[in-house]
Amino acid sequence: MSRTTRRAATLFAGAAVLAGALAGCGGDATTSPAAAADGPHVAFLVPSTSLRSMAYDVPNFSVELTRQCPTCVVDVQTADDQATQNSQAQQAIADGAQALVVVAIDGAQAAPLAEAADAADVPVVAYDRLVKDAPVDYYVSFDGGAVGELGGQAILDAVGTDTAGGAIVMLQGDPADNNAGLFAAGAHSVLDGKVDIATERYVTGWSADEAAVQMREALGDLGGRRLLGVYTAYDGLAAGALQALTEAGISGVPITGQDAETAALQRILAGTQTMTVYKDLPGQARTTAGLVAAVLAGEEPETTGTTDNGAGAVPTVLLQPQAVGKSQIAGEVLADGYTTVDALCAGAASRLCADAGISAS
After folding, report:
1. Could you tell me which of 267, 222, 214 has the C-alpha nearest to residue 244?
2. Are residues 161 and 80 in the same domain?
3. Average pLDDT for 145-164
4. In the chain, what are the helix, strand and coil shares in percent, each to the nearest 5?
5. Is residue 223 domain-shared with residue 344, that is, in the same domain?
6. What is the pTM of this model?
7. Would you tell me how many other CB atoms lie within 10 Å of the CB of residue 1?
8. Rounded average pLDDT over 17-42
9. What's the pLDDT tens digit per position in 289-299?
10. Are the CB atoms for 222 and 198 separated by under 8 Å?
11. Residues 137, 159: contact at Cβ < 8 Å?
């Protein structure tokens, strides 16, 4: 048994005794379903700006953790900056949290929370974003390199062989997010040497508005070359890029994205966005819940390998993404329950769905 599972087993045993003593008493308000008793508390720390956290991560994690650990309680905290998130983690530890699941706002500045947890023998799971240069017990994410590769290949497939006199623009994610660098490296592994890159820009905060600003400026970097395509690392960036292109009177340009947001799927149906990289976010949340439940029970969870975070080899679970174009929306995204036909086909998008053969029946 590893140090992580040994210490978690000790914590779980103590919490079980406490749960028995508190059975029938009222517990703290949490996002998890009503627990049978006030058992082990798991602090789930997420950025307040992350739409996916409340839509997918928190609810799926909470339901699955409660299914596997009926007495577990999930305490959700949101923050706007890393300093606040670090303080939240330290307070959660002081309040008796038995595990931390952290979506770091800035993975390079999140070391204090991991160090505080390590000092208190509280296991830390870096969720989706790696915490750098600090002791972390587990890391659960998607294969970031593969995400970038899928987007890069989609650009090459859309551009074809007619690249003479043209170049692409690359809009990468927030430089504070470790994943942004992974996506970029994956995309470059496919694109470099195959197509000219006019400019590459990192967009702070993954902001659609900032992406529009960056895209307007990027058009000036083409230097008279025709725009072959726009690689973006996120659907929100694709939306911003499309806004800038529309303002400039440019249409029909291949644009990639990531996260299979409903608006992006509608753009794919309309033909204004080429594809998105789909990640089974509910599956990621459920996988993480299973890992946490195992650790709290003193068991060794299954992993797929390790990741070097600068402080050591972190046991890792890497999940695989999928490329989704128009023909994959029904069979992949809708079939997984990631979104619904009603949401996808609302309003003006109903005609797009009908044209694509997508219906509730």
Report:
1. 214
2. no
3. 96
4. 45, 20, 35
5. yes
6. 0.81
7. 11
8. 47
9. 999 999 999 99
10. yes
11. no
What is the spatial distance between Cα 139 and Cα 314, in angstroms, rounded to a whole number? 7
| 8 Å CB contact between 98 and 40 | yes
User: Cα angle vertex 157, ends 153, 161, to 5°?
Assistant: 120
Relative to beta strand 305-308, strand 313-319 is antiparallel
- Looking at the fold, whether 118 and 195 belong to one and the same domain comes out as no
Q: How far, in Å, are 121, 125, 232, 307 from residue 118 at the CA level? A: 5, 12, 37, 18
Do 247 and 275 lie in a common domain? yes
Q: Are 122 and 147 in contact (CB under 8 A)?
A: no
Q: What pLDDT band is residue 50 in, cutting at 50, 70 and 90?
A: confident
For residue 32, pLDDT beyond 60 = no
Confidence bin at 316 (pLDDT 50/70/90): very high
Residue 358 CA to residue 264 CA, distance in Å, equals 16
**Residues whose CB is less than 8 angstroms from the CB of residue 284 and which lie 6 or more positions away in sequence, other chains included:** 57, 128, 140, 141, 142, 319
Alpha-carbon distances of 203 from 181, 265, 289, rounded to whole Å: 12, 22, 31
Residue 160 has pLDDT above 50, yes or no: yes
Give CA–CA dist 176/105, Å, rounded: 8
| CA distance linking residue 306 with residue 264, whole number of Å | 33
Residues 217 and 75 in one domain: no
Q: How many domains does the chain have?
A: 2
Residue 361 domain-assigned (yes or no): no
Q: What is the pLDDT of residues 234-249, one digit of tens each?
A: 999 999 999 999 999 9
Residue 23's CB is within 10 A of a number of other CB atoms, namely: 12
| Domain boundaries, position 98 | 3-136+280-319
Cα 300 to Cα 1: distance, rounded to the nearest angstrom: 7
Q: Which neighbouring-strand residues pair with 200?
A: 170
Say which DSSP state 44 is in. E
Which among 140, 138, 130, 136 has a CA at the least distance from the CA of 116? 136
DSSP single-letter state for residue 132: P
Does residue 360 sit within a domain? no
